[in-house]
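Researcher: Please predict.
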Amino acid sequence: MLYIKSNQFNTVYTSVSPHKTISNPTYLMCLEHAQSGKKYSFIPQNVTPFTGSPYNDRYDLFRFKVAESGVDLTGGTRSWYHTLPNATIYDDPKYKGTGKSYPQFALWNSTINILNIRFDWEDVNDGMDTVNDTGFTVTINDQVYTGTTAVVRDEPSGVDRVAIALTDVTSPVQLEDIYKIAYTGTTTGGTSITNIIYVATGIEVQDAEPWTYYGDSSVQLKNYPITPLGETVVNIDEVGQFYYSIREQVSPINTTCSLSGDKLEEGLLYLTQDFTDTYYYTGGTVNVYDPTETQTYHILQEDDFHILTEDNDLLTQD
């Protein structure tokens, strides 16, 4: 059983990735209250890559908060991207030739973020000599970006870089509101380039400084894992026992359980409000059972309150 508390962030250990059938799935968590049948669903933040836990090869760690406000059911989908082609890292011919694109965010300051989209070509002739503002399109939150796009050739040889300045002035939305970036284009050799990424906001990156998760103080010419930063917050207005399942899906934003993929794990989850809930009955009040303590409280009748200790000593208060 998973035990979680409200009004704080919870990190739960699961074991879903050994059973996944999708190469890079988004995990959807579905809850159903055992008594009321009310259902909840959200995408937890997957913190497995940077927790430092010695059990990461056996467990998946998900983080989310149960709160009364600030709901963000897909917070776990936004990530910080700072990936580089092998040729950029090593500048060695044997590492070239991926034919892939690599988004790289450089946090310039509070009003300017730089998005570098790098391309590592097997054949340098399949570069981006003719790609420019009309041949390469970037959309931000599904709006076409209207800022300046610069193409830098051979940095190092075999890698092209499209540098895009995301600023509060030229972007169609404010930096703190950017959550989705897509880009598409065609190289001189006819290779199609397309990608969609759900990004952490500039403020989230500034506050978290995710490169420090990996023990670094600089982000210059380094390669980091895709690091989720968006925090998932869900409003659950019930406490007690829930049935839960964790499902895999291709969509990074779907929160409808019936539209998701296979169940990878299911079980019981117990939610309490920091173990301080008070329930009322005609004879007085009693605190919710705390599974981390050694004694339990039982209401036996209206006028009597009995405490059964761990040593099975029965105390009666009339």
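Model: Residues 78 and 245 are 22 Å apart (CA to CA).
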